């Protein structure tokens, strides 16, 4: 069964449900799979460390798991049976959001990290959020991502602004990060923790 009380992400991959389990206090977690619509769960973590996973993304039959605590991204091409890393060259950032398309794997990071892309997936990483409309100082966290093709939506959280109505925001790019624009039509300025 699933031994972690906190689930940070869940997704469907073919006939499976995949869950990222966390234990915030001990910084340990795992990836779990269910083949029976969630009635029973088993660990699905060959090749994974026991760390807190923060996000999942699916593209075709590939599954990606992001880890905020050790700045790592893991990839499985066999429904979560075994895993390998795809984060070589990614700066040491806390991975909080993942989105995968045929154009690349996108990472949203905390601690002023911004948004990074690897295209083709796993080859190298580059920032697509510096000085082009997406806030990126050390107190801005990218909380979650959504991507279709080269269009990416990022939800940000502005830490340190406890007494302000401007805690978050939604930003969009349609040119793979060359320019970002705030989506502010009647949306509250709060962080969005998940987008599907």
What is shown here, in short?
With 196 residues, this protein is mostly beta strands. The protein is built from no helices and 16 strands.
Outline the structure in words.
The protein has strands spanning 6-13, 16-23, 28-34, 42-43, 53-59, 62-67, 72-76, 84-85, 95-101, 104-109, 114-118, 126-127, 140-148, 151-158, 168-173, 181-183. The protein is built from no helices and 16 strands. 0% of the residues lie in helices and 46% in strands. The protein is globular, with a radius of gyration of 16 Å. Strands 1-2-3-4 form a four-stranded antiparallel sheet, with no helix packed on it. It has 196 residues and is an all-beta fold.
What's the SSE blueprint?
Layout lengths: L5 E8 L2 E8 L4 E7 L7 E2 L9 E7 L2 E6 L4 E5 L7 E2 L9 E7 L2 E6 L4 E5 L7 E2 L12 E9 L2 E8 L9 E6 L7 E3 L13
Antiparallel strand pairs: 1-2, 2-3, 3-4, 5-6, 6-7, 7-8, 9-10, 10-11, 11-12, 13-14, 14-15, 15-16
């Amino acid at each position: 069964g699933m031994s972690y009380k906190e689930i940070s992400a869940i997704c469907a991959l073919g006939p499976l449900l995949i869950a990222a389990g966390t234990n915030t206090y001990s910084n340990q977690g795992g990836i779990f799979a269910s083949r029976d619509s969630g009635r029973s769960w088993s660990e699905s973590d060959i090749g994974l460390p026991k760390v807190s996973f923060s996000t999942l993304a699916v593209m075709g039959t590939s599954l990606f798991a992001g880890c905020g605590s050790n700045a790592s991204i893991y990839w499985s091409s066999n429904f979560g049976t075994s895993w390998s890393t795809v984060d070589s060259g990614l700066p040491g950032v806390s991975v909080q959001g993942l989105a995968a398309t045929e154009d690349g794997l996108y990472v949203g990071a905390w601690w002023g990290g911004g948004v990074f892309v690897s295209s083709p997936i796993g080859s190298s990483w580059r920032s697509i959020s510096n000085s082009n409309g997406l806030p990126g100082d050390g107190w801005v966290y990218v909380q979650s991502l959504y991507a279709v093709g080269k269009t990416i939506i990022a939800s940000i959280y502005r830490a340190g602004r406890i007494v302000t109505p401007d805690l978050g925001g939604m930003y969009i790019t349609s040119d793979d990060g060359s320019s970002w624009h705030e989506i502010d039509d009647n949306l509250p300025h709060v962080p969005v923790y998940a987008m599907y």
